[in-house]
Amino acid sequence: MYDVIVEVSPPVDFVDRRGVIPDSERQALIDIHPKGFFIRHPPAPHELEEALTPESKLFQTIHMGAAVVDASQWELVLDGLVERPFSINLEQLRQMPSKSVTSFHECYGSPINPPTRNVWRIGNVQWTGVPLQYLLSIARPDLERGLFIWSDGLDSGTFAGVSADRYQKDLPIEKALSSEVLVAYEMNGQPLTKERGGPVRLVVPGWFGTNSTKWLCHLSVQATRSGGPFTTAFYNETDPADLQGVRKRPVWRVEPNSMIVRPRPEEVVLGSQYVEGWGRTWGADEIVRVEVSLDQGDTWDEATVVPRKQFEWQLFSFRVPVHRTGRYYIQARATDKSSARQPLVGRRNHVPTVQVWLESRSA
């Protein structure tokens, strides 16, 4: 069920947390500035051309305000249902075995609105940090009782009228022990900025960004899910598999999604017998098939998809023959290796549509 936990000896001395005052790790917080909700939308899909998204083009979502952290005072606590609770500082974390993972980074969208609109709030970045699996191997979690990992950020405040003394999320132990989950301190080769959750954040590749707790200070192995507002009031959605529309599920895994980068919306294509272009596709599981339609879903042509190496978004390209000039609506539909497929309408990951015009050169 779980990856094997092998006891390791940490390469640095760490502080045994038994008997230490709770929440002492929060003393590294200097301020929340600016306070309150903030969002920076990404560019339109046709402007996300780079394989690795630069900081200037990556969306930002901050729920309660940005934490200003004294990096010299920062510490990470790992406790709960573990044999050896401990804490480490930033220098010690950086001395531990590190790993880089290239992964798509996607915002779920507003947790207070129905998930019916595809916002394409997406980027693709390289994270560097210490595998959470490694830190857990030091702490020796009780895998019989410890079913979830709670993660605390240093931010606090109010979101959508609900106040919280911290941003707290949880992960099932199965995902927490996956080799790709990182306690990260760099993005695209640079130290994490305050706006990116620095000095340290959790990174959960394949899952929505809400699970990648920013300004990370505390990890705790627990028997149950967190009862905080960001796991109860927010970021739960109706399970589409429930025909009665009653059952809820956590916003965890990313379902298959795609976007068309070329051609651009309203682009005029001259003198061609083909409509061709490319885009990006992504999901928790690898995408193995992308189909393209030019007739609003009546027929579909197979695109070429580049296989995934880690959790990066995948390039797809297409070249579909056409027999007339005029307007075309290009749609792309992704299917992952577990056979989950993008819906045509009505969901936050519904297929993209780009309108283009095909004209003869003599027009």
TrEMBL record:
A GO-annotated cellular component: mitochondrion
InterPro entries recorded: Ig_E-set (IPR014756), MoCF_OxRdtse_dimer (IPR005066), Mopterin_OxRdtase_euk (IPR008335), OxRdtase_Mopterin-bd_dom (IPR000572), OxRdtase_Mopterin-bd_sf (IPR036374)
Gene Ontology molecular function: heme binding; molybdenum ion binding; molybdopterin cofactor binding; sulfite oxidase activity
Cofactor(s) demanded: Mo-molybdopterin
Residue span, Oxidoreductase molybdopterin-binding domain: 64-228
Keywords from the UniProt entry: Metal-binding, Molybdenum, Oxidoreductase
Moybdenum cofactor oxidoreductase dimerisation domain boundaries: 251-344
One Pfam family here: Oxidored_molyb
Presence of keyword Metal-binding: yes
A GO biological-process term: sulfur compound metabolic process
Name listed for the protein in its UniProt record: Sulfite reductase
Species whose genome carries this gene: Aspergillus sclerotiicarbonarius (strain CBS 121057 / IBT 28362)
